[in-house]
Design brief:
Elements (H helix, E strand, L loop, with lengths): L10 H8 L2 E7 L6 E5 L2 E7 H8 L3 H9 L6 E2 L15 H24 L4 H23 L1 H33 L11 E5 L2 E4 L12 E4 L6 H13 L5 E5 L11 H7 L3 E5 H4 L1 E2 L7 E4 L2 E4 L2 H15 L6 H18 L5 H10 L5 H16 L3 E2 L6 H4 L6 E5 L6 H18 L9 E5 L12 H8 L5 E7 L7 H7 L4 E4 L7 H8 L4 H5 L5 E6 L12 E6 L7
Parallel strand pairs: 1-3, 7-16, 7-17, 8-14, 8-15, 9-14, 10-13, 15-16
Antiparallel strand pairs: 2-3, 4-9, 5-6, 11-12, 17-18, 18-19
Helix pairs in contact: 10-11, 10-15, 11-12, 11-13, 12-13, 15-16
């Protein structure tokens, strides 16, 4: 029987998903599924066993099975008992302890493997089973006599089961932090035995944004961990976008990891990808009427990100060509548009010199090849910020090129910005961004929007940086929107500039800051229970095991 299919209407959708063709290969010796787009043709390679496993299954069952596959978030649990040290001074010792913990997990796995049955054991079990069958027949004859004894045994067993369940419940309860024991105000530090708090939930605070600066090794990351720990104890969840791998298990303080337990989670983008469609036309309301963004708006946003990362290589001609390519792709593929389609359109784009197109393609081709974004998966921001005091690290480690990590960070920030548009200032959303000097703070960038408009949507952005020299004058003005600024010992070349920006602080006060000490500028609670005008304290960040 001959079947006819009309694909004319769906040709663009098919081309977006399958290119000019689709090759499915079951490869002997392969261990992972790999999907690549080569010159407009999709090549999908799977392990050989996958072919045998799926051969007898109907297509609709395979489709359902594929759609039900969920993304994973790995939880990391630390079993360390050691006391805490300011700014993780004994880093080598910490690495040894973490390695020891991992070795214990490996030993457990080995124990499980060596305790499996051998073929000889199986034979013994079979003989034992046959003997038990004979005994069972005899047992049936005395069944009625044993009923009373069985009931007594059952009652005893139920009592033991109830006791066991009560014990499990009490242990589960103990794992959850009792929010009544902790202050709603994170502790910043101590000055002359006076505790200085961040008035995180106070409506009088101008905003919840933080700028954290200082040379490497002065205590910035330890300070951030301390604040996160305090917030987590009050059930406040937070997200860390880790650009520099400073929030991996081996870099974090052991006391912090132990206290967080399974509330500390890592999302390693290199291995797991990230649910994000950078070409998505989002819902936009204009004069009370909702509708999708125009392709030109999405094209401008994508081009702005690329041009901010490749500042030295993108001139007016490159920006114009890239804008045209994105716009054409959206008009052709709509929400099926992907980075691989952008590369194909650039290769066939007319009206531009080959040198212009080549300069674009050579810069973005690597980003296309390692594209880690899951265009059709739903984002998980709602899950990350659900109550429970979870700290989720979106880890960008694994990519050697700074440009790749910058592009990912900017696109993730844009996605997050649009997610928060329905938020309110009464529901805080703490987001920590390290190496902020690598982000774009120009007008219209997500970071600039967050600092200027984010308060009304609940944003609490923490921008950490080792230097302020990389920021332009206009970008420093945007950074000044942060309600609280924390300065650890800075580089000598920045001391006078920072002292002038702070106002009443002197260069000597910044010079004299010791490791674990910082100058904090912001609004603080007064005796009349009102917030002060902006002022500063020089505080010592207390050890986490003393808080």
């Amino acid at each position: 029987m001959i079947r006819k299919y009309n694909v004319g209407r769906n040709v663009n959708t098919l081309r977006a998903n399958c290119g000019h063709g689709l090759v499915i290969s079951f490869k002997k010796g392969a261990r992972l599924k790999v999907k690549e787009r080569r010159h407009g043709v999709i090549v999908f390679e799977s392990p050989e066993q996958s072919g045998y496993d799926t051969l007898a299954k109907p297509m609709n069952q395979l489709a359902v099975s594929y759609e039900e596959q969920t993304e994973r978030i790995y939880s990391t649990i630390s079993g360390a008992d050691e006391a805490d040290e300011i700014a993780s001074e004994d880093s080598e010792s910490i690495k040894e302890k973490v390695g020891s913990s991992e070795q214990k997990e490996l030993n457990v796995s080995k124990f499980e493997v060596t305790n499996t049955f051998s073929v000889e054991d199986t034979g013994k079990v079979r003989e034992s089973s046959e003997a038990k069958d004979v005994q069972t027949e005899k047992a049936r004859q005395s069944h009625n006599e044993n009923d009373e004894q069985t009931n007594r045994t059952k009652t005893s067993h139920e009592a033991e089961e109830e006791k066991h369940q009560e014990t499990e419940t009490s242990l589960a309860t103990a794992k959850k932090p009792d929010t009544n024991l902790y202050s709603e105000r994170p502790l910043i530090g101590v000055e002359n035995n006076q505790e200085v708090y961040w008035e995180f939930h106070n409506n009088q605070l101008s905003n919840r944004h933080l700028i954290i600066g200082g040379r490497s090794g002065q205590g910035k990351n330890y300070f951030i961990q301390s604040l996160l720990r305090d917030l987590s104890r009050t059930n406040q969840s937070a997200v860390v976008i880790d650009y520099s791998s400073s929030n991996t298990r081996t870099q974090l303080d052991l006391v912090f990891l132990k206290d967080m337990g399974d509330r500390f989670r890592e999302r390693i983008v290199y291995h797991e990808g990230f649910s994000l469609n950078l070409f998505l036309r989002r819902e936009k309301e204009v004069a009370g009427v909702a509708g999708k963004e125009k392709p030109t708006e999405v094209a401008r946003r994508v081009v702005d990100v690329f041009s901010s990362v490749y500042k030295n290589g993108f001139g007016p001609q490159q920006i114009s060509a890239l804008y045209e390519a994105v716009k054409r792709g959206l008009e052709r593929y709509d929400d099926k548009m992907k980075m691989e389609h952008l590369l194909e359109i650039l290769e066939e784009l007319d009206g531009y010199a080959n040198s212009v197109l080549s300069s674009i393609i050579t810069r973005i081709v690597q980003f296309v090849d390692i594209d880690s974004f899951g265009y059709e998966s739903r984002n998980q921001w709602e899950e990350y910020f659900a109550p429970g005091g979870n700290i989720t690290v979106i880890q960008l480690a694994g990519y050697d090129q700074d440009e790749i990590k910058k592009l990912m960070a900017e696109f993730i920030l844009w996605d997050f910005w649009y997610y928060t548009q329905n938020g309110t200032k009464d529901k805080p959303i703490p987001v920590i961004l390290d190496e902020a000097q690598n982000l774009d703070f120009s007008d219209g960038s997500p970071s600039a929007k967050i600092l200027r408009e984010g308060r009304k949507f609940g944003w609490s952005a923490w921008f950490a940086t080792q230097t302020f020299n990389n920021f332009s004058k206009d970008e420093l003005t945007i950074l000044d929107n942060a309600g609280t600024k924390v300065y650890f010992n800075p580089a000598e070349s920045e001391v006078c500039v920072l002292a002038n920006r702070i106002g009443r602080a002197t260069p000597e006060e910044l010079w004299m800051l010791q490791k674990g000490q910082c100058l904090v500028l912001g609004q603080f609670m007064q005796r009349d229970q009102k917030l002060s005008n902006p002022t500063y304290y020089i505080v010592k960040v207390p050890a986490m095991n003393t808080r």
